[in-house]
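Q: A reviewer asked whether we had any structural model of the full assembly, not just the individual parts. We don't, so I'm hoping you can provide one. Inputs are below.
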Amino acid sequence: MIMRFIKAFYEFWKDFLIGDCPEVVVGVGVVLAVLLVLLAVTGVSTIEDNLARTVFPENISVLFSVVVPVAIVGVLAFSVTRGMKQ
Amino acid sequence: MTAATIGLLITVVIGSAVEAVEATTIVLASGITRGWRSTWEGTAVALVLLTAIVAFLGPALVHYVPLNILRIVVGFLLLVFGLQWLRKAILRASGYKALHDEAVIYQREMNALSKAPKFLQGQRDSLAFMISFKGVFLEGMEVVIIVISFGVPADKVNPGTLQLCAFGALAAVLVIAIIGAFTAKPLARMPENTMKIGVGMILSLFGVFWMGEGAGIEWPLSDAFLFVLLAVLAAATFALIIYTRRSKSSPTTAVAS
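A: Here is a predicted structure for the entire assembly that you could use as a starting point for your response.
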């Protein structure tokens, strides 16, 4: 009974998160991971100094506010294109 | 009530209505072919379980999970869910995927259920119970995820939003259930794909926004950046619909497929 419940729970989340388009969860996961790494590790200051502060005067958030939505639209476009071929 | 809260509430209501339409089709098929007693029992047990999940899990998340972690996890889930809805809706709008037809699903369920062995009069029908329970619970879980995903992070900032989202979802489910009960037919005329495009965009919109905020991005223009994100997502969605429709109707694609 417990095993059946665990299996049903696993199947629900697998279907919910992956379904027939695993590229969506992978794409969003990659965007989130890159975002977290860049914002968390010390290397961010290099990017901030070398890129953001020279190109964008305020901070790196401005850079991300452009890159993140574009990356998400890219994930959607890739997934739709893949869906057209399926 | 702020504009963002009204936006959240509208999205929760429409998203819940879409899921309720799918659950109503299953319940109607089960009730009409197998009888209403066990169908209602399965539906009621599923609804009690779903209500308990929202009642216990929602406040627990509000009180014990830090806002930034909530925003990252919820944003991630909303974004994945929203992009999947958008993808399906775009492919359906262009004909690459068959439209979600409640009438066809209803007929299929009716055929499958009427072929199953009959139960003795007066006894409980385990098949009707399981079909209605599973249908309502699985579709309802998606409503629960929408309510918790939208309600919990917003409740941290504006207390009471979680309850508002829960009542909004409940109202939407009740309205659909009442319409289904009176018409005794699947609600095939609802513009489900259009609603899915709208809800998919809003789910993705808040997904990106909260995931970014949780990770540490300070969006320019603060909350007003939601409108910029909405414009970007809407433009991308409609561009993809036009692109896929053109690809579908172009002669080279027709020959290739």
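A: Points you may want to mention in the reply: Chain B touches chain A through 36 residues (CB under 8 Å). The two ends of chain B are 51 Å apart (CA to CA).
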